[in-house]
Amino acid sequence: MDITLNYPRPTTVAAGTEATSLELAANDGRGVVAFRGRAQHPLVLRQLLLALHATIPAASQRRGWLGDEEWRTTLDPIVSVYPDQLVFEAFSNDTSCYARLTAPVSAFDDATVSGTGTTNIDFSWDLRPLLQQLRSTTPTMLTIGAPTTPLPLGADPTARQVALPEAWLKSFLQVQGALTMRPFTFTVRPVDLLSIIAYLDEHFTRQSPQGMRYVFSPGGPLKVVLEPWEATFPLRGTFYTGYERVVRLWGRRRLALLRDVLPYADRVTVAVLGRGLPHLYICHCGPYRLMLALSGWAANDWEMGSGFDLLAAFQGATAERTARVGDFLQAHTAVRADEVAAATGIDAGEVDRALFQLSRAGRVLYDPLTNDYRARDLFGAPLDLERLFVSDPRLEEAQALIEGGKVVVRGVTSSGASTKVLALVHADIDYTVTVGIDENGRLRYGKCQCTFFRMNRMSRGPCEHILATRLAFDTPSPSDPVGATATDDDDWDEDDATNAAVDDDDEDDTDDASF
Amino acid sequence: MSDVRERIELLLRSGLDDDALAHEMEPLAKNDDFSEAADLWAPALYDRDPRYFAPFLARHLSSSEGPVIHALLPRIEAAGQSDLFIALYRNAIDEAGWNSDLRALVDAPQDAAPFARAIHLRSTVPSSYTLAEDLAAALYRRAPSAFAAELLPHVLPGYDWAAGRNRTYQELRANARAAQDDAVTWSLFRTFADTQEWTIEMTRLAAQNVPASAIVAELEKRRLDQPNTMDPALLVSFLDRYGTTLTPFVNANLKWFGRLQTDLLLEAIRRMGDLGLFRRVFFRFADNSAWNDAIAQALRTQADDAALAQTLREWAPPIQQLAPRDWWLDAGSASTLYTRNPTHFRDFILLTLHNPEPALFDAAAAQGDEELLDAITFAVLDELATTVATTFPNQKAVQATQLKGRQRTWLDDWTPRLCDRFDRLFATSPLTYTQHATRILAHPLGTAAKLRDDTTRNPVAYLFQQHRAAWARDPRAISTLLETPDDSVQEWALTFLQQPGPDAAARVTEALPSLMALLLGDAAPSLKKMALRCLEAAATANPAYASQIAPRLEELMYYGSTHNLDERVMVSFVRARHFAQAQAVGA
After folding, report:
1. Which terminus of chain B has a lower count of CB atoms within 10 Å, N or C?
2. A330 and A224 in one domain?
3. Could you tell me if A290 and A307 are in contact, meaning their C-beta atoms sit under 8 angstroms apart?
4. Residues A384 and A412 in one domain
5. Same domain for A369 and A415?
């Protein structure tokens, strides 16, 4: 997909003795988006903008300049101006990191929002030393679009065509969908994360394994264990009461992106989905929030990996209802799903599915802390979603299994908001499959014995047998024992459904999509 | 027989089910002897259950077990286990083996679909693997689409040692041309065409009346991977003919253009009339000398100040650069510009100032232009840093008297100017002095800082040694320096904070976030010690400060870096807390 970035002037920082002006140039191909205000905390804002800036180059490039080729496929960050807040978003070249900086308008004095909407901002590599000129001691005026100072000497308009690879585009959209997956969250002290980052800086190994494990043991604090040293870091202030669980993640060195932010953070909200699945770090820095979302592995970019759309409910909302939900968001600044349902009269489950579809289409921004949804058009151009999200071969195989009568549902039990389905799938061999589905039709956990599941668990989405079981639940046949209690699987009962095994390649039979 | 091998045999005979067997094998796999027994366990596990043990095989068979993998691959391929095949094939095959494998494939009778699938399975080898020339042609003839999709990236230039010449893939190229396969033909052209071939092709293109809407695409097709084989004059003729239509082509290939004759290209772009493009090319590929020549010529030829200012705007170095370099205005040109008109050309001078003349300083002083004087001061200190770095690379501290000859004369020329100005600023008010000194010190001094402890008068020693009380009284100065992301500037700030008294203590508390960031970062231990001393001194000076500082120090104790000064932090925390509590009790 080609995107034209047209900046009549570059982003500039004019640092004087009495005042500093940070003028972020906006892409004038996206309509008038404009904001002006004096930052109350310029130093913190500086650190957060620098972290956003550092996210964009891939990990392998972070110590040097972006070359011409990388620059040609690098999309500048996006800023969305709302009446009550500014939201900056950046996505790394290697699609392993997503950063979002949220700044309330109330964190600026003499603030003026003169154009709401979404645009790109000129955020070149040169900007780094300029941003470092911001000081807490000098009033700093932030301007987005609508510059107020004369064009500085040496400032050239830039227009460049960015050829966004489809894989990158799809990954960016996958992130939006992933953020709606309701992860398990807990609050961590910044110095504890800094200790982990420092340890990784100070120790190097070529030995495997090189994962990072979040260890959840009931009755005590959460812990982080770094492999292969088995260095353990208790997360002070946390206390866990759920079931015993380990979530193993990779690409831990990307946490260093938060190094220069954490000293200014009051606390950090950490969110995990499951083994090899994305994890989030939301740094609360006074009025600002910086969210860093990392894919489950450094090499597992969002596009290749998790297949979040496969975890979502299949039967999406109808086009008409999705449009109504979208229109409602356009007319309101920030709303929750239940508010949308109440106002539109659309069933809550369908609203949830519509919001997921809109998020995945880049048209909605979801805040995992407040559960608010906001209208936001990531690219300003219609996307060919059918082409981007071509039907996954696993889904096609699952449908073939259903059509071939190869899926026999043996038991369905409902427990509160979740449903457990047990099935026998006759594929190359017979697989006993178990899935858990939440009240909105999303896959929450699964278990299968096939090669794909054993190699990947749920980190690349469900296998075709789990999908087929899920599909069978949606379209039961008369012979399915709907409502009967599953009794044949002696590895599984209601307690075990929430009792995911130790996350070890040999022992883990079950993998959660989330808690 | 090794213990591991015995154990494996035992397990394979034991009658365990697949889960239990896998469970037992995993810990064994961590043993160094495990790979040597691959001939035993790999085929046995595959025979037992190809699908169940596929992940295990993919994880534990590496290039060391090449023969074992080779023996299994035909069965894996026949079973349609693509993922496993790809995972193992890549581990087991070297470039020669890969070529042999493909050679056997091309000769084997197979339908198109299985052939294409077989190619796909074998295409995920390292990108450096190169196809033999005759093999590439044969594969192309057999399956042009599969070849283009999977194997074209392995048609690489380089030297064929067996043939004793560079690879040219002439047969493949001829086959592609004969098949009218434009995509492959042009791809190979870009990689392998020599100067003569390129010239013929470009001349042929020039003779066609290609419309402006299509010319960029046509030029892209013909843009060689090795541009130094192209005649720049021929390219320039296209620029002259198509003008700004080719701006996207030049923009997209800027890096490649720079390898050609820049002068020729710039002249052509000038004729195109695209100032933006001219600036992009000039500031990417020209040098400082050419730039100064252009400025000097403008100075000589343009009498009207407004017109000259416009010209300088066009020559102002870009503030955003993909490949930055310094554009330093010749000292004489800077002085001439400022003397000619202090207002019109000031911004240009500020943007490009480097190693200025004392005459410029004197002119700015006469105008009372304090901002320019600060910039000149820093530019002088920057030049001093270069002098010290080259003359005293290994000395930690330098005295001005160690400079000799022209270097000494140069410094003696500048010292009274700069130091007298500092005196004047201080006489105006201490705050005036610290404000200007802060602006100067916002730029790191680098090796010029080696002069700071000098007992003879020099501007660096002045800034470091004089008016410490004024620094402590200025609320903005210390924080500004601490927030500069440079160790040496932060060290100066911490030095200024060492002095006793309520002012320094107040500054420490105001700068608490920056000090904590320093302590939680990767600053040098010496810097961290200074920061801790400052915090402790401030905490014990005032209970209100202690109540702010103590919790931060307590949190710092949990920082698990080896560079954390654990014991010192603990001592500082205990003292701060004790002071706060004692004062509270006393109150």
Report:
1. C
2. no
3. no
4. no
5. no
Check: CB of residue A187 under 8 Å from CB of residue A281: no
Q: Which of A388, A423, A443 is the last residue of a domain?
A: A388
Query: Any CB–CB contact under 8 A between A2 and chain B?
Result: no
The answer to whether residues A381 and A459 belong to one domain is no
Tell me the ipTM for this assembly.
0.81
Total structural domains within chain A: 4
Of the candidates A143, A136, A142, which has an alpha carbon nearest to the alpha carbon of residue A42? Answer: A136
Q: What string of pLDDT tens digits covers the 515 residues of chain A?
A: 788 888 888 898 888 878 999 999 999 888 899 999 999 999 999 999 999 999 988 665 555 556 656 666 678 899 999 999 999 999 988 888 999 999 999 999 999 999 999 999 988 767 888 899 999 999 999 999 988 888 888 888 877 778 787 778 888 887 887 787 778 899 999 999 999 999 999 998 887 778 899 999 999 999 999 999 999 999 999 999 988 888 888 889 899 999 999 999 999 999 988 777 789 999 999 999 999 999 876 555 555 444 555 665 555 678 899 999 999 999 999 999 999 999 999 998 889 889 988 888 889 999 988 999 999 998 887 777 777 666 667 878 888 888 888 999 898 888 777 789 999 999 888 899 999 887 666 777 889 988 788 777 777 778 899 989 988 887 655 544 433 333 333 332 322 222 222 233 322 333 443 33
Residues 273 through 332 of chain A touching chain B, CB cutoff 8 Å: none
Chain B residues near residue A68 by CB distance under 8 angstroms:
254-255, 322
- What whole-number distance in Å separates Cα of residue B329 and Cα of residue B431? 32
Count of pairs with CB atoms under 8 A, one residue in A, one in B: 131
DSSP conformational letter for A224: E
Which of B55, B351, B484 has the CB atom closest to A454's CB atom?
B55
User: B520, A17: Cβ pair inside 8 Å?
Assistant: no
The answer to whether the Cβ–Cβ distance between B561 and A202 falls below 8 Å is yes
Q: Under a CB-based contact definition with an 8 Å cutoff, are residues A321 and A405 in contact?
A: no
Interchain contact, B54 vs A202, CB within 8 Å: no
Size of chain B in residues: 587
Final residue belonging to a domain, choices A341, A358, A388: A388
Q: Are both A316 and A375 inside the same structural domain?
A: yes
User: Residues A191, A300: one domain?
Assistant: yes
In a domain, A175, yes or no: no
Which A-chain residues 57-96 have CB contacts (< 8 A) with chain B?
A: 65-66, 68, 71-72
CATH number of the structural domain spanning residue A303: 3.10.150.10
Tell me, yes or no, whether A209 and A285 share the same domain: yes
Length of chain A (residues): 515
At B448, is the secondary structure helix, strand, or coil?
helix
Same domain as A188, residue A272:
yes
Task: Report yes or no on whether pTM surpasses 0.95.
Answer: no
**Whole-Å CA distances, B489 to A305, B365, B467, B485:** 45, 27, 17, 8
Query: Is residue A300 in some structural domain?
Result: yes
Q: Give residue A142's domain range.
A: 2-87+98-164
Nearest to A29 by CA among A97, A93, A78: A78
Query: Looking at the complex, does the CB of residue A202 fall below 8 Å from at least one CB of chain B?
Result: yes
Show which of residues 384-403 on chain A sit within 8 Å of chain B, judged by CB atoms: none
The reply to whether A129 touches chain B by the CB within 8 Å rule is no
Q: A135 and B563 in contact by Cβ < 8 A?
A: no
Residue A67 included in any domain: yes
First to last CA, chain B: 82
